[in-house]
Amino acid sequence: MPGRLYNDRSFMSVGPTSESPLEANAPLSLDGAAVLIVDEDPAFQLGLKTFLKEYVGFPAVHVAKSGREALRILRDEPSIRLVTLDYRMPELDGLGVLEILRDDPPRPLAVVMITGYPSDRLEQEFHAYRSPLLRTEHFVSKPVDFAALEPIVLKAYESLLKDPPVAAPLASVQESPVLKAAVARATAAQVSAAPSFDAAARLDGLEAAMTGRLEALQQQLTAIETRLADLNERTPSLWRRFWLLALGLIFATTAAFLAYQMGWFAEAGAWIERTLLVPPPQDGWL
Questions:
Q1: Which fold has domain 8-169?
Q2: Please, how many CA atoms are within 13 Å of residue 144, restricted to the half-sphere of its CB?
Q3: Are the beta carbons of 47 and 7 closer than 8 angstroms?
Q4: Contact (Cβ atoms closer than 8 angstroms) between residue 91 and residue 68
Q5: Beta bridge partner(s), residue 60
Q6: Torsion angle of C-alpha atoms 125, 88, 58, 27, degrees rounded to 10
Q7: Which of 45, 133, 150 is nearest to 89 (CA)?
Q8: CA 43, CA 6: separation in Å to the nearest integer?
Q9: Does residue 183 sit in helix, strand or coil?
Q10: pLDDT tens, the chain, 286 aa long
Q11: Peptide bond connecting 236 to the previous residue in cis, omega within 30 degrees of 0
Q12: Which residues contact 38 (CB under 8 A, 6 or more apart)?
């Protein structure tokens, strides 16, 4: 059926046999070991969970549909030692989950990537995340043959028991959040123990800032003085223009008043009426 990411026949044909690697390797104990399945396909989740719990024998199997949910479960469930991880998932894909686990691993983990989109590049990127606290040796393509998957998950879990990470590399220790917090506290203590250096630096910075502001203020004052001097130079000419305009208005008003008193406006109106408005008489009209 389209969309199924595992092989129905291989899953249904699997059953307990005498060739089970779990029975062949009796010293390998799964007591207390839990598995986390990270896959967005509910059908594949159910099939793999049933296989790991009922057939392989893991006492607890958790499931997550996204990378974000997987990270939360890993931190809430300290018994999880093995993770089966899909590549394409919402919010955060499989490589994004590995990047976070590599930078801040909650505990030693073995990761088996099971994806329906295999490629040589993806497999190389998956293996590149390997570290003493993050085992990324096993890459499986869908559809999954569960009979072949059993020795893979057991080998991945067994690698944590046979080769436990005694000490993390120096780079991992330096990136530890606890160590970073301790370094931050020590640095803060050193700074508080020697305040004179910070005070001198702050005084130098304050002096430089004040000097810059005083220079800017001096420039503004110089510009204002220049504008005032220019305005003082232009004031006499402005007064002359004002008085000339006033005298012109007085002269025009006086001339209009005299013309009105002498009847010039009436005579001009009569002339305009006789000359322009009344048409001349035409010959032959009564």
A1: Rossmann fold (3.40.50)
A2: 27
A3: no
A4: yes
A5: 34
A6: -10
A7: 45
A8: 9
A9: helix
A10: 333 344 443 443 333 343 444 444 445 678 788 999 999 999 999 999 999 999 999 999 999 999 999 999 999 999 999 999 999 998 899 999 999 999 988 999 999 999 999 999 999 999 999 999 999 999 999 999 998 999 999 999 998 887 665 444 444 444 555 455 655 665 565 545 444 445 566 667 777 777 877 788 788 878 887 777 776 666 666 677 788 888 888 878 887 777 777 777 777 777 777 777 666 666 555 4
A11: no
A12: 63, 64, 66, 67, 70, 83, 84, 85, 86, 89, 94, 97
- The residues spanned by each domain of the chain are 8-169, 207-276
Alpha-carbon gap, residue 260 to 229, rounded angstroms: 48
In b/e form, how buried is each residue of 20-30, taking b as 16+ CB within 10 angstroms? beeeeeeebeb
**Collapsing DSSP states into helix, strand and coil, what is residue 86?**
coil
Instruction: Pull the structure tokens for residue 162.
Output: 């046979």
Is residue 84 within 8 Å of residue 35, measured between CB atoms? yes
**Half-sphere exposure in the Cβ direction for 20 (13 Å, CA):** 15
Q: Is this prediction's pTM over 0.85? A: no
